[in-house]
Amino acid sequence: MRPSLLQYLKLILLLALGGVTTMHVPKQDVPLSLEALTLDGHFSFHDVSAAAQDFGNMSSFPPVAVLHPGSVADIATTIRHVFLMGEHSALTVAARGHGHSLYGQSQAAEGIVISMESLQSNRMRVNPGESPYVDASGGELWINVLHETLKYGLAPKSWTDYLHLTVGGTLSNAGVSGQTFRHGPQISNVNELEIVTGRGDVITCSPEQNSDLFHAALGGLGQFGIITRARIPLEPAPKMVRWIRVLYLDFASFTEDQEMLISAEKTFDYIEGFVIINRTGILNNWRSSFNPQDPMRASQFESDGKVLFCLEMTKNFNPDEADVMEQVSQPLALCH
Ligand SMILES: Cc1cc2nc3c(=O)[nH]c(=O)nc-3n(C[C@H](O)[C@H](O)[C@H](O)COP(=O)(O)OP(=O)(O)OC[C@H]3O[C@@H](n4cnc5c(N)ncnc54)[C@H](O)[C@@H]3O)c2cc1C
Prior knowledge:
Its main location: secreted. The protein is an alpha+beta fold. Helices cover 25% and strands 22% of the residues.
């Protein structure tokens, strides 16, 4: 629906008088007031249904507008505009990364959703120096961070299992995977953040600079500002990796072994444990490291429909250590 002439006149009046203090924007005039902002990107007002969905598929709250920012300044301008509407405005703002939340966390009912993936725009920069790091946009997917850093033989230290999640999305939560026992979650592996605050200020923060904001935003569920850039420390990427899975029928042995491995020095570089609900065909599962053609091993996995437990581990090594690695890991690849 196109705004009427009267609505345009009301908006011009609002912007002219609103000035420095807060300005009241009636709900029906919000789209018009957003349209009047000068941006590098743009707002969508009609095609907003995707922003009302997430991976969980349990909540659906359509926003009034989706911002596709062309720059960090667009996010700052929009948030400042909402801030200036004052505390009586019910308009909410939510950043949306890859929308893999389960309960609508990246949605904003009748508010503004900021589509962070629009912000990827060539902002990734790898510094391969003595203490290497990458500067990545908050809307960048971790898979892209990996591909870019691998060009320099480098990689972040702490991961999620699934890499089609955004930097801002996982840093607003925790970001855990099989490296967490060694390096901590992803939020413990950040040097610096650039954040657009609730007032629309763009602030750089780190453990040394604006540290309250830094620590609040990490794991802050998007409530302390929008992460527009993160500086992630890097380490040399492994050249080769040995991937091992061990199946257990007995929960006590499974947890005992897992605790022993994560507390011992110099064991694996990645350790995860999970439960497998035993269905037919687990040996052919794409994640299985067991060779279904091997009848000796396959016969050990008959479990009559019982729940199985699995330890998954990896060990990084150099090509010249391949023989040693074979000797060390072979006894582990057996069923317990
Ligand atoms: C298939 C699948 C696999 C997963 N695997 C793992 C895993 O291995 N390890 C793990 O730890 N988690 C995992 N998760 C959970 C996932 O990390 C979180 O749901 C994460 O928040 C999703 O990232 P996203 O980019 O989709 O963020 P979204 O779902 O879009 O957003 C998540 C939250 O962060 C906020 N947010 C998003 N971007 C920003 C930003 N730039 N600044 C501030 N706030 C922001 C949103 O407002 C929202 O509150 C998985 C989820 C799914 C669905």
